Every structure is written in C-alpha cells, then in structure tokens.
Amino acid sequence: MLSVTDSRWFDLLEEEDLAFVKRFVLCSGSLKELADSYGVSYPTLRLRLDRVIQKIKILDDQKVEDPYERLLRAQYADGNLDSATFKRLLTTYTQQVKGTK
User: Fold this and answer.
1) For 7-59, how does the pLDDT look when each residue is reduced to its tens digit (9 = 90+)?
2) Position 1 confidence tier, pLDDT thresholds 50, 70, 90
3) What is the enclosing helix (H) or strand (E) of 90?
4) Radius of gyration, alpha carbons of the chain
5) What is the pTM of this model?
6) 66: which residues sit within 8 A by CB, 6+ positions away?
7) What is the DSSP string of 26-77?
8) What angle do CA 12, 88, 76 make, to 5 degrees?
9) Terminal CA-CA length for the chain
C-alpha cells in the first residue's frame, strides 16, 4: 500500500468526490449538463466543483507531506471547517509538531 506522501491525488479522494469527477468528465465538462444530472442549480454545482478542485490541489501539493495537515486542509476545502477553526487547529498542530522535533 502506498503511503500518503507516495499516493496520487485521486487515490486520496473520497468515493463521492471520485464519482463527481467521473460524472463531470462523462458530461464532457459541461457544468450545465452536470447540474441537470444532479438536479441542482448551476451555483450549487459550481460551489461543489470549486471545493473538489481545492481538495485536489491540496492532495496533489507535494509540500504538504504530513497526513494530519493534509486531512485538515481537505476538511477545510470541503467546507467542514470554518476558516477560524482551521487556522486554530493548524497553528496548534504545527506548534505541537515543532515542539516535538
């Protein structure tokens, strides 16, 4: 099994995100068609796509090697953490890691 740092971004995406990307590709990248297939408005779909794009950028970022930091960043990109909470958790974790080295 690959480690988090050896994994490719698509290996780290959740099944729901992979299904979204697959549907996007099968719709030839048409956001209107994809929104229709999900039965949602264009702005709702655009927000979802933006979150998946942000998550892919985080997962593909080779500078983020720490699995916990990568998880925090992915949760923030998914909208599961607000900005203040994300920053507080990341700062606290970074300080803890630096203190143990």
Assistant:
1) 677 787 889 999 999 999 999 999 999 999 999 999 999 999 999 998 888 87
2) very low
3) helix 83-100
4) 16
5) 0.66
6) 97
7) HTTT-HHHHHHHHT--HHHHHHHHHHHHHHHHHHH-TT---HHHHHHHHHHH
8) 30
9) 27
